[in-house]
Amino acid sequence: MGVYSRFGNKDGLLEALFVRGFEALQVAIEIPRTLSPLRRLHAGCRAYRQFAIDNPQLYHLMFEQMMLLELSPEAKDAATASFGTLVDRVHAAMDSGGLAAGDSTDAAQQIWSAIHGAVSLEIAGVHFAHDREANFAAMVDSLLRGLAPRA
């Protein structure tokens, strides 16, 4: 009963885990600024995958289970911060010429949709590649090439 008195109810406990999960994801995707903006974006995508592989139950809670509940402003802010990091990295890659100029939020949504889909399938056991990590990196390469400036 002590857990529920601290968090109010089961939903409160799950929301606390949700917030902590996004805080941990934010730490996991922190990439050194010594890399070029495009390499930093690529490394962040790989770090996102690794976080999900290392924490499959938490990842499921963050991206599947909790989306069915009414989230507090704190929980929404925690989730939004991670996407904001992706938008910032896309914007930096656009500014450096690594990605074509455009709407960084739209491009970030495209990237997130692709990497989230790939990671979700991998966690669910739906994968056919012999080397899943290399396959994911190749998928990110293809995605970023598709967003690169046209020659």
TrEMBL record:
Residues 41-143 form the HTH-type transcriptional regulator MT1864/Rv1816-like C-terminal domain. Gene3D superfamilies: Tetracycline Repressor, domain 2. Keywords: DNA-binding, Transcription, Transcription regulation. One of its GO terms (molecular function) is transcription cis-regulatory region binding. This is Unannotated protein. It comes from freshwater metagenome.
